[in-house]
Amino acid sequence: MVEMRVAKQQTFAGLAWQNKGKQTRRERFLAEMDAIIPWAQLLELIEPHYPKAGNGRPPLGLEKMLRIYFLQIWFNPSDPGAEEALYDSESMRRFARIELSADKVPDESTILNFRHLLEEHDLTKAMFERINGLMEQKGLLLRSGTIVDATIIAAPSSTKNATDSRDPEMKQTKKGKNWHFGMKVHVGTDRRGVVHSVTATHAAAADITQMNALLHGQERTIFGDQAYWKEADRQRFRAAGVRYRVNRRGTAQRPLTDHQKKINQSRSRTRARGEHAFRIVKQLWGFAKVRYRGIAKNAARAFTSFALANLYLMRRCISPHQQWCP
To answer: Residue 4 — very low, low, confident or very high, per pLDDT cuts 50/70/90?
Structure first.
């Protein structure tokens, strides 16, 4: 289904914004992402599940709602915050294809219901897979090697809330000398850092438990930090002809030799590329803390976040004005 676009009369504020002399970083970012997101393919995935016009209140345009959902991924507002941002920010309204003089701004309930629709039908995972499929067709997703890694997404540890309790699905874990409460997002990436697999667990889950779920089966090389080291796995992959380049873990009885430490350092230079998407999703887009209660809702956000992070990582290769590709 293709949405018909009708010419809209702009407000005076919109005309003044269009004629301003400077383009902000936010505007450049939104224009860049708008140009590389495969809108038609994503809308095709969601359209069969989207409400149709009937006896009730007519639904707002699907593309408009998807654009607002992506704004939430990038700028991390709550549902009420997203509604207010659309009134406040001309650049966000333009990205969402909203003109105040002609269009209705979705309220927070409408924004919430759209997110629930995506979660209910596993559409964020479907979008992740569709985007990765398109990237693989363009030769931008490599299958020869996988880097496995995990990151902690913090959750509120306080019980000062409406239920006087923590989220029961979140757990605490110790990293270094510090304790962290929340969940883990586990990823498998190619050797350039493009994410091809995502899983989510509570924070206390051992990283190595997700190893097999993060592999696609075509690897010739596997990289990971010491949390993934297992001698039985090393022998199993070696027998299958797969190079096991996971950092070796020493013990009190058998510490690493200087030679083994140097090998770990060499492997870490490649393994570090698997953290590129974490930097984008957590530091640039604010997904360092959970937004919702429960692992499933935050996992749905993770699938969308890493799908868009893949596009952002490879934007110079995808852009119609491609100038350089890593």
So the answer is: very low
Altogether, the residues listed in the chain come to a count of 326
Mean pLDDT of 211-224: 96
Residue 57 burial (10 A CB sphere; 0-12, 13-18, 19+): exposed
Contact 114, 60 (CB under 8 A): no
Say if residues 193 and 274 touch (Cβ distance below 8 Å): yes
Confidence band, pLDDT 50/70/90 cuts, at residue 6: very low
Quick one: 30 exposed, middle or buried, by C-beta within 10 A (0-12, 13-18, 19+)?
buried
Token representation of residue 126: 């479907």
Neighbouring C-beta atoms of residue 103, cutoff 10 Å: 16
User: Residue 173: beta bridge partners?
Assistant: 180
Nearest-Å Rg of the Cα atoms of the chain is: 22
Collapsed DSSP state (helix, strand, coil) of residue 243: strand
pTM for the full model? 0.90
CA–CA separation, 67 and 63 (whole Å): 6
- CA dist., res. 199 & res. 214, Å (int): 8
Average pLDDT over residues 273-298: 96
Residue 2 clears pLDDT 60, i.e. is over it: no
pLDDT per residue over 231-243, tens digit each? 999 999 999 999 9
Measure the CA angle with vertex 143, ends 142 and 144; round to 5°.
100
In single-letter form, the type of residue at position 121 comes to H
Q: 13 falls in which pLDDT band (50, 70, 90)?
A: low
Tokens of 248: 């070796």
Reported as type and span, the H/E element at residue 286 is none
- Which residues lie closer than 8 Å to 314 by C-beta, 6 or more apart? 135, 140, 192, 194, 325, 326
222-233: string of b/e by CB count within 10 Å (b at 16+)? bbbbebbbbeeb
